[in-house]
Inverse folding.
């Protein structure tokens, strides 16, 4: 079966690849949007924290014998705690300054973290095996879909949905949104705003680490894996609208699919199509598709 002269297995294979990439774009841009939307910090350390999540899963397996399912729970907590420490020691001091200071600080911290891991583990990737329960492939008739890749798309979607529901539909989320608008008023109601902001940063970092654990069996675990994604993820955030939770999720998955289709119909543009879309969106709507001016 062909579609527009393209064999069905090739077309749907690239669509699946686009959805997988989109799942990582959505999870990472969601973490960035949470941190920027609630704390007004452009967190360039996010790529390094994604890499730390993958390394945490690898170390839990090789040093402590804790497999994939345990790593899905423990790695985000471990990396999230490092994010909380980082926020308390450094980032919290920059909240009242221009965004540029936070960007430069987090960019430098990201380079330091990546350099430390590269010095310790080298630049070559290390394998992380797919858990036995998620090995194999489903025969869909027109293509074989690896079980693990289907799992990644589904769990990333529900993680994004759960995060959106917490922020938009719960009392905690309403406190967070109110604290970004008028922290003094929220503090007057007895809510510890600095602690809330610290936990928000930790939650955003944990989302990046969660994505890193999901990525470990697909990509080789290496110190550069975060830096390879972070520029694209920032483009996703800008297109969706800085600080927009829903915009980050929808744009992440959508741009992943667009990138996958581009690889089929015009492969030469696949590495730049997201930035072309970003330029068009910024010309038409500078605040992004779902952002506010």
């Amino acid at each position: 079966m062909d579609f527009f002269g393209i064999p069905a297995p090739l077309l749907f294979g690239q669509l699946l690849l686009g959805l997988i990439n989109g799942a990582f774009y959505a999870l990472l841009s969601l973490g960035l949007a949470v941190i920027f939307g609630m704390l007004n910090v452009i967190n360039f350390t996010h790529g390094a924290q994604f890499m730390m999540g993958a390394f945490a899963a690898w170390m839990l397996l090789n040093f402590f014998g804790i497999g994939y399912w345990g790593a899905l729970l423990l790695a985000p907590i471990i990396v999230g705690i490092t994010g909380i420490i980082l926020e308390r020691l450094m980032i919290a001091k920059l909240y009242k300054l221009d965004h540029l200071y936070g960007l430069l600080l987090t960019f430098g911290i990201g380079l330091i973290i990546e350099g430390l891991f590269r010095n310790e583990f080298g630049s070559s990737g290390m394998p992380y095996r797919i858990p036995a329960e998620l090995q194999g492939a489903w025969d869909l008739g027109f293509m074989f879909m690896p079980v693990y890749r289907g799992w990644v798309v589904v769990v990333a979607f529900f993680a994004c949905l759960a995060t959106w529901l917490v922020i938009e539909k719960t009392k905690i989320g309403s406190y967070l949104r109110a604290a970004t608008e008028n922290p003094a008023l929220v503090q007057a109601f007895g809510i510890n705003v600095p602690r809330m902001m610290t936990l928000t940063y930790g939650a955003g970092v944990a989302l990046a680490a969660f994505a890193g654990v999901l990525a470990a069996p697909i990509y080789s675990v290496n110190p550069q894996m975060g830096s390879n994604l972070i520029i694209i993820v920032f483009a996703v955030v800008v297109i969706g609208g800085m600080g927009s939770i829903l915009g980050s999720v929808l744009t992440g998955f959508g741009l992943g699919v667009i990138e996958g289709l581009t690889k089929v119909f015009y492969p030469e543009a696949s590495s730049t199509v997201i930035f072309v879309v970003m330029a068009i969106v910024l010309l038409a709507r500078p605040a992004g598709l779902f952002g506010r001016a």
About this structure: The chain has one domain: 2-136+147-284. The radius of gyration is 19 Å. Residues 2-136+147-284 form a domain with the ABC transporter involved in vitamin B12 uptake, BtuC fold (CATH 1.10.3470).
